[in-house]
Amino acid sequence: MKYIEEFRDGSTARKLAGAIAREADPEREYRFMEFCGGHTHAIFRYGVQALLPDNVRFVHGPGCPVCVLPTGRIDAAIELVERHDVILCSYGDAMRVPGGGRRSLLQVKAAGGDVRMVWSSRDALQVARDNPQRQVVFFAIGFETTTPPTAVALQQAEAEGLENFSVFCNHVLTPSAIQRILDAPELREMEPVVIDGFLGPSHVSAIIGSRPYEYFAEEYQKPVVIAGFEPLDVMQSVRMLIRQVNRRQARVENQYTRVVSREGNARAKALVAEFFELRRSFEWRGLGEVPYSALRIKGDHAELDAERRFPLSDHPSREVRGCLCPAILRGTRKPTDCRLFGTACTPDDPKGSCMVSSEGACAAYWTYGRFRQARESAA
Amino acid sequence: MSRDPLLASGRVEMVHGSGGRAMSRLVEALFLRHLDNPLLRQGNDQAQFPVEAGRMVMSTDGHVVSPLFFPGGDIGSLSVHGTINDLAMAGARPLWLSAAFVLEEGFPLESLERIVASMARACREAGVAVVTGDTKVVERGKADGVFITTTGVGVVPEGVEISGDRARPGDAILLSGPIGNHGVAILASREHLGFETAIQSDSAALHGLVAEMVAAAPGIHCLRDPTRGGLAATLNELARQSRVGMRLREESIPVEAGVAAACELLGLDPLHVANEGRLVCICAPEDAESLLEAMRRHPLGARAARIGEVVADESCLVQMETRFGGSRVVDWLAGEQLPRIC
């Protein structure tokens, strides 16, 4: 795989690890939050942490779209299937998340509900074309990366006059979540988060550009390095963050220049602006209600909005007792701090959302991290 | 076949499973014609055959793959290879198979014939025979085309003692070839994914390779074919059965470039992707080289590699040194990766 393997080269990694070890000040701690689940996954899959000095640590952020989805939205999706008899098209990961009533879409499917796994919004459109007599709803989730494809599906549905297609929109915005995390110390109910810098999202930034992060860097005096998803990208970005911290800088730097520009993808942004508008507030798992942090379908396209097409009941979100997902998503607790981790909550029987998606911090810890844990407890 | 009035519609009908004349016609025109052998020809409800000396092994496997035809195979050849391989993983020589078909009403007879002909070809190549069988028809919508269950009987040569609980610390872990081809071939052939690859399923009968291996080193400890759940699941199973840990080197695990690229695109880990013509062998370190040589002489083991070692570990973890220089746990796959792959 040309152009990918180069970013996974072991000998370059060792050199970079040497440079990081020399530059990191042994007298202090470096805590960097990787916002995106994609980074969390890369860190664990390639064993990046093992190549870093012990005082350089990752704080896993809330950037896994499945993990931040509140249980009430899952319950609403279930209602669409069971009460309104729609065909619900969902990305695979979202099907395993238990809702507030502990039921997941997979269980609803097993009980006879028409839930179908799709790989893209395009697949959902095809389901609508193939089933003209049924209402088909696309369960749209994700950050800025998956929003443009949903916009394309809406555009296509309008162009074709697909009357049986609509979108249950749960798209959320990265900058609002980062701000929420940084604001957390001011919020009475949340523990303060100690973060020395951010690894900025790769694919999200390809769409929105690096400019939106400039505000945080400035306002909160935290360095941000937009980082690619390959392990060498992550290591190089860590080195850039360490340098900024050492020099007491707080700038936005772009390590992922091969994909991300300052302004982002203008066409994608225009398309999103045509079909979506800001919600006044949206609930995030772990972060609570976050103002202006999510999108809904604009009024001129209201007929494609499943929330307007189908009357939905109010589903308050509920967490399993003892589940630390909210604190883990904010980076104040580690998965291993949770007493459910690895006992009541495993990938086979997830209680909290962080265990469901492979991008979730708990699942990543469970799948890849036990090696380190075993080593640490032996030491 | 279509000239027969009882088969003229060209589709499986409920009457073909009713036990009457139509069923008998279907069996003769299709199953007997392709799978013909003296034991099947006897026409009894069971097959009778002499018992050989030594230990016999028996295994059964249901096949529900979707799609039924995929690059490098189909449900027919897969249903023969799958059961043969389960026998071969005990070091056995497979002898006889049974085949039970669940057919969906409306399924094209032409497709059924292709599947049965493919089974017959796989049997001939492997030197086994389907000696007894059964056919059931269910209403449209109650099955997905064809489901095939095969059961196999084989004989284990004297002195061979292969079992999943025999891995010992220090043992070598060998893999017969590149992983992930079957799962990716199945995935690529699902229309809605809309990508094309030249990747073929590795579906193959492994008993010939196993016979060469057993001849080279009769003391093999464990053999297993990494099917559903992939190499990761198989190694975890063996680690747990033998109460040991394993340490793998990622760079020594062969993955074809096309498979690696497809996995990258779809977010899959090749270690979790199914295979239907590969095996994992665990042996004493002193047997490793002669086994690798024997494997590489056989076409199905041409790219065999030593991928790691068995270690003492009470928690039975399978660990891997990544190509990147880090380490990680190789876990079972949680949930389903691909529905109905075999």
Descriptive account of the structure:
The complex is a heterodimer of chains A (379) and B (342). Chain A has 379 residues and is α/β, with parallel strands linked by helices. Chain A folds into two domains: 192 residues, HypD, alpha/beta domain 1 (Rossmann fold); 146 residues, Rossmann fold (3-Layer(aba) Sandwich). In chain A, helix 6 links the parallel strand 5 and strand 6. Chain B contains nine helices and 13 strands. A seven-stranded mixed beta sheet of chain B has the order 8-10-7-11-9-12-13. In chain B, strands 1-6-4-5 form a four-stranded mixed beta sheet. Chain B has a two-stranded antiparallel sheet with strand order 2-3. Chain B is of the alpha+beta class and 342 residues long. In chain B, strand 2 and strand 3 form a beta hairpin. Chain B is 30% helix and 22% strand. Chain B starts with 20 loop residues before the first helix and ends in a 13-residue tail after the last strand. In chain B, helix 1 runs parallel beside helix 4, helix 3 packs parallel to helix 4 and helix 6 packs antiparallel against helix 9. Chain B has two domains: 152 residues, PurM-like, N-terminal domain (60s Ribosomal Protein L30, Chain: A); 158 residues, PurM-like C-terminal domain (Phosphoribosyl-aminoimidazole Synthetase, Chain A, domain 2, Alpha-Beta Complex). Chains A and B meet through helix 1 and helix 14 of A and helix 8 and strand 13 of B.
